[in-house]
Sequence to fold (234 residues):
Amino acid sequence: MGLETIIVAKSTGSNIKIFISANKSLLFMPNVSNKLNINIQMRKQLIQRLYEILNNHVKNHGYNYLRNQIPKDFNCGIYFFFEKITQIENNQFKITYIGITKKNNNNRLEKHQINGPSSFRDHVGEAINNRNGVVNNLSIDQYIHNLPYIFITIKNIDDLKLIEKRTIELVSNFYQAPSIHIPNKDWLGYSHTQSIIPKAHIWNIQHAGGKYSDKNNHSDPLDKLSYYSKDMIK
Fold:
């Protein structure tokens, strides 16, 4: 009896093989629900590892705030902003924005600190305006300047871009069920009109809709992030 194989693309980004006989009757189909559960568990474990790396960094370096002067050595690396009104495991704050800055005299942190240009400030400003009916630079400052953030120096630009992309994919809840670390109901991002932000539960748009997939290697970027964080202790 001859077998025919049909490849079915699932929403997880993985291909599922369905085996049928010559008369088109179904012979075998892998357990899709088990594969989805494994994918969910892998994402949860990787997010937990990400927070462990960042928590260890905080223990060694503490939090920074844009209401203070930006350290001069924060000029090439990745930064993570956190939302204080949403706490997750071990009293950690939830990641609310991820960004990078390169060593090119265009420090993105400085753009977020003052009147840009900054997409982060633009998104926050739109949400404030939608919620309160009025917005200005002072109201944007009052929000962003009070978000704790950490900075990890990464001078390898390829690693920097990869770590940014993969960490945003992990943290974003955009069309990823179940959502992990849902923000407090008072989170400002819910007032934004861009559909990705309220559903992704972070202020990022780029990479936030890319969706976590077990076909992409997320462990290696986290290994690199941990290495660069520990390297700053030297």
Summary: Residues 33-231 form one domain. Confidence is low (pLDDT under 50) at residues 1-30.
